[in-house]
Specification:
CATH class of the largest domain: Alpha Beta
Number of domains: 2
CATH topology of the largest domain: Rossmann fold
Number of strands: 15
Number of helices: 11
CATH superfamily of the largest domain: Translation initiation factor eif-2b, domain 2
Bound molecules: 5-S-methyl-1-O-phosphono-5-thio-D-ribulose
Order of helices and strands: EEEEHHHHHEHEHEHEEEHEEHEEEH
Largest sheet: 7 strands, mixed
């Protein structure tokens, strides 16, 4: 019954472990030193796990949120109510889950799709339990679909980069933040492309940034690269321009939390400066993201809400969890994301192919999405 994505001790890269009625999330705050899974029993448990960065990365938080409610729903002792009552119960919890982190559109996209499922089920079925069952099945499909979508991103990204950079020997790619297995249901987006390039014997070297202040790069991406035996080097965020100037990077690939209709892309803070550096050094800069990261309701990145996180992430070591490292009394600005303008982006790698400007000034993302939906 249902899918089984439970943890095995050999797979330290599995952030979401799910079996119908049970959800465990790998506590990514403790990586790379400890592998600890936390039991999540409810939407409320999911909300806190997302807000507190137990689980992070745009696709992973959407799936973790959906499954936290699936687990709560499966374990409900008794629900006295009609199908419409069960739909209201689920819709309210989905809206609550969306409030955990604002920037990644995958979370609200998942919630919108799940709301449609429960509203349809409530008008089809005569018992509340069938609405809950429809919800659980739809949430489980999201977990399954994400891995397939990431593998397709890896495939399209590797083929496109191989043909774009065919004259390059010793291909080196720089990435930022963590977009791998840990940030998704498995395989990853930007790191999935790096994985695919490595699997195909095309990649010579990967570079990952530390990604301060939360160190998703040094703690998580470095961990994945070492685990996968991909030749890789960690750099300080501030070393990226010098690395590019030294000619040691041929392409930059990052993930996305929200891509506006014109291609402006919100991603981890520091992405914009990498794109500017890449432009200066004539290095192609790619975004790799599933179509669920595209928000066609926003015409540009100006309207993307950027999450600001606790000053503690800068004032203390270990992303706020360790000892004080900054001077007492200093004020802090800590946006978790920035927006890279579309004109700095060479292509957006999706599970349906790579969106390019095709010789024009701007991306036609809406047209691409419509064509992808009709295939
Ligand atoms: O704050 P985080 O760690 O959730 O930020 C993650 C990123 O910015 C990723 O690049 C993005 O979510 C894509 S993950 C496949």
């Amino acid at each position: 019954m249902g899918i089984d994505s439970t943890a095995t001790s050999s797979n330290a890269l599995q952030s979401i472990c799910y079996k119908r009625g049970s959800l465990q999330l790998l506590d990514q705050r403790k990586l790379p030193l400890e592998t600890v899974y936390l039991d999540i029993h409810s939407a409320s448990g999911g909300w806190f796990a997302i807000r507190d960065m137990v689980v992070r990365g745009a696709p992973a938080i959407a799936i973790a949120a959906a499954l936290s409610l699936a687990v709560e729903t499966f374990n409900l002792e008794a629900f006295q109510g009609s199908p419409a009552d069960s739909a209201s119960f689920l819709v309210e919890k989905l809206e609550y889950l969306v409030s955990s982190r604002p920037t990644a559109v995958n979370l609200s996209d998942a919630a919108t799709k799940l709301k449609e499922v429960v509203l349809k089920a409530s008008s089809t079925f005569s018992e509340a339990k069938d609405v809950f069952q429809a919800y659980i099945e739809a949430a489980e499909i999201m977990l399954e679909d994400d891995v397939a979508s990431n593998k397709a991103i890896g495939f399209y990204g590797a083929s496109s980069i191989q043909s774009q950079l065919k004259d390059v020997n010793n291909l080196s790619i720089l990435t930022h933040c963590n977009t791998g297995s840990l940030a998704t249901a498995g395989y990853g987006t930007a790191l999935g492309v790096i994985r695919a390039l490595h699997e195909q014997g095309i990649l010579e070297h990967a570079y990952c940034t530390e990604t301060r202040p939360f160190n998703q790069g040094s703690r998580l991406t470095a961990f994945e690269l070492v685990h996968e035996k991909i030749p890789a080097t960690l750099i300080a965020d501030s070393a990226a321009a010098a690395l590019m100037k030294a000619g040691r990077v041929h392409g930059v690939i990052v993930g996305a939390d929200r891509v506006a209709a014109n291609g402006d892309t919100a991603n981890k803070i520091g992405t914009y400066s990498l794109a500017l550096c890449a432009k200066h050094h004539n290095i192609p800069f790619y975004v790799a993201a599933p179509l669920t990261s595209i928000d066609l309701s926003l015409s540009s990145g100006d309207d993307i809400v950027i999450e600001e996180r606790s000053p503690k992430e800068l004032l203390n070591s270990r992303g706020g969890l360790g000892e004080q490292v900054a001077a007492s009394g200093i004020s802090v600005w800590n946006p978790a994301f920035d927006v890279t303008p579309a004109d700095l982006i060479a292509g957006i790698i999706t599970e349906k192919g790579v969106i390019t400007k095709a010789g024009k000034e701007a991306f036609d993302i809406k047209g691409f999405a419509q064509r992808a939906a009709s295939v």
